[in-house]
Amino acid sequence: MPALLVLNARVRICEGNQVSEDAFRRRTYSAGTKIFEEGEEGSHAYLIERGRVQISANRRGFDFAIAMLGPGELFGELALIDDKRRSATATAVEETEVMAVGHQQLTRRLERADPVLALLLRLILKRLRRSLHQVLGQEGIGYGDDEQAGTTRDRSLEHAAENAISEIKRVHELDLAIEHRDFELFYQPIIRCSNGEVAGFEALIRWRHPERGLLAPVHFIALAEETGLIVPLGLWALEQACSDLQLLRERSLHADPHRPPLFVSVNLSVSQIKNPDEIGQLSDLLKRLGSKAESLKLEITESVLIENPKLFSNVLADLKRLGITLAIDDFGTGYSSLSYLHHLPVDTIKIDRSFGQTMLESYSSLQVVRAVIGLASELGIDVVAEGIVSVKQFQRLRELGCGSVQGFLFSEALPVGKALSFLEEPVDLDLESIGAPDSSLR
C-alpha cells in the first residue's frame, strides 16, 4: 500500500486511500493503510481513538508482528523522544482514528519535565530499543549506521544526564543547607501611613551559600517547593522569626515605650497547608511557641487561596484559633472577585506592588487600589501596600486611607541587627509637608 500524504487540514484523496484530519491533529486511516513505515523519520506519535493498529518489523524479508494496539494506546513515540528513525511499521488493521502528537508538543514537555525524570525516560527508551533489536535479530541500534543521528542521540542523552546530575546536586545542596541552617531572615519594615512609625516587619529568607554568596528566594524557593524541602525550611523560618521577634519588640519598646507591639509577617507555603500532616506539624510548632506566636502574621498568596477558597478557609480558621493573624499576600494578581473576602478569616490584605507602583499613571490600577482599601475598611481588614518607592505614591495611599506601606522608599530588607537599629531612627519622611489624608479623595 503506497504511503499517504496529508496535504490539507480536512480531506485529501491519495491513490485510493482516504485520510481526514481535523486541524492537523485528528486523522482517520482506512484499513490496510500504513500510518508510518520502518526506517522513516519520526514526526508524530499517535493515540488511537477507535480502530486497531498492527506494529510490525521486517527482518530478512519476513514481516514480524510485534503488537496489536487498540483504543487508548499510544504508538510512534520512541522516534520522537530519542530522535531515531522508525524501528517498525504501523498499519491500520481496520478504519482507525488517531490523534496526532507533534514532535514539538512532546519535546517541549520533556524540556519542562523534571531533569531526573527526563534522564530516566531516555535511559529506559534506550534499553527498550536495544532489547527490541536483539529480539528481532538486528545488530546495533541505528538504521544505515547513521553516525550523525547517533551523535545527536548521544549528545541528547549526555545533556539529559548533565541536567539530572545538576538537579540532584542542587537538591542535595539545599537539603544540607537546611540541615546546617545556612539561612538567614532579613526584615523589611512595614510603616504606618498615619504617623510613619514601624508597625512590623516582613521576614524574607536568604541563603548564605558557601560559593555563590547571599542568595535571594528566587534562586531556591521554587526548588524547595518542588522537592518538599519547603516544609522544613518554612518551619525553621517560623521558629527563627519568633526568636528575632522577641529582640525586635524589646528594642521597639526601649525606643518608644508607648509604641504598639510589633508584629512579624512570615510567608506560608501552600505545601504547609495542603497536606494534613504538614498542617499538623505547623499547628504543633505554633502551640509550642505559645504566646510568641501571637505577634506572628502568616502570609498566604492570593493565587493559592482562590484555587479552593472553601478548603483554605477552614485551614485558615484552624490556624487563627492558635492565636496568630493572617494576611493575603500579592492581592489583586489572582484576578478574583473581592466578594470572597468576607468568607476568609483574614486580618490583613497586602496589595501587590504592581498596583501601588502604577496607580499614579494607570487609572485602572488606581481603581483597584481604591476598591480594595474601601472594601477592606468596611470589613475591618487592615491594608498594606507593597513596593512603594516614591513619596507621591505614599501620599496618594494616605489620601485613599491605606493603613500601612512597605518598600524601598523606607528601607530594603535588613539583617536583624540593622533592623534593630532601624527601630531607633525615625522614618525620614516629612509627614507635615505631605499633609493630612483628604477623606474626599477616597
Quick summary:
The chain has 15 helices and 20 strands. The protein is of the alpha/beta class.
Topology:
Layout: E1 11-14, E2 17-22, E3 26-29, E4 34-36, E5 44-50, E6 53-59, E7 62-69, E8 74-75, H1 77-82, E9 89-92, E10 96-102, H2 103-112, H3 115-135, H4 147-180, E11 183-192, E12 198-209, E13 213-215, H5 221-227, H6 230-255, E14 263-267, H7 271-274, H8 276-289, E15 296-301, H9 302-305, H10 309-320, E16 325-331, E17 348-351, H11 353-358, H12 363-379, E18 382-385, H13 391-400, E19 404-405, E20 414-415, H14 416-422, H15 431-434
Parallel strand pairs: 12-14, 14-15, 15-16, 16-17, 17-18, 18-19
Antiparallel strand pairs: 1-2, 2-3, 3-10, 4-9, 5-8, 5-10, 6-7, 6-9, 11-12, 11-19, 11-20, 12-13
Helix pairs in contact: 3-4, 6-8, 6-14
How would you characterize the overall build of this protein?
The chain is of the alpha/beta class and 442 residues long. The chain has 3 domains: 11-110, Jelly Rolls (Sandwich); 115-168; 181-441, EAL domain (TIM Barrel, Alpha-Beta Barrel), CATH 3.20.20. The protein is built from 15 helices and 20 strands. It has helices at 77-82, 103-112, 115-135, 147-180, 221-227, 230-255, 271-274, 276-289, 302-305, 309-320, 353-358, 363-379, 391-400, 416-422, 431-434; strands at residues 11-14, 17-22, 26-29, 34-36, 44-50, 53-59, 62-69, 74-75, 89-92, 96-102, 183-192, 198-209, 213-215, 263-267, 296-301, 325-331, 348-351, 382-385, 404-405, 414-415. It has an 8-stranded mixed β-barrel with strand order 11-12-14-15-16-17-18-19. The radius of gyration is 31 Å and the shape is elongated. It starts with 10 loop residues before the first strand and ends in an 8-residue tail after the last helix.
